[in-house]
Amino acid sequence: MRTITSSTYVAAFVSGALAVLSFASWRVDVRAQGGASGTAAAIDACVAIDGALRFLRPPASCDAAERHLLLQTMTAPAQKDSDSATQSLKARIAALERKVIDLEDAASRGELGTTVVEPFEVRNGDGKTIFSVSKTYGEYSAVQVHVNNKDGALAAGIMATDAGGWFFVNSPKLQAGAWFGVQRGHAALEIDENDVTRVQLGRADNNNYRLAIYGADKQATAGLGQSMAGTGLAFVADHGVMKAQFSLAEHYSGLLKIERSNNEDLVAAGARDYGGGVLQVMSLDGVPMVEAIASAAGYGIVAVGPAGRPTGGGLIGVPGSYIAGKP
Question: N or C: which end of the chain has fewer CB within 10 A?
Answer without folding.
Answer: N
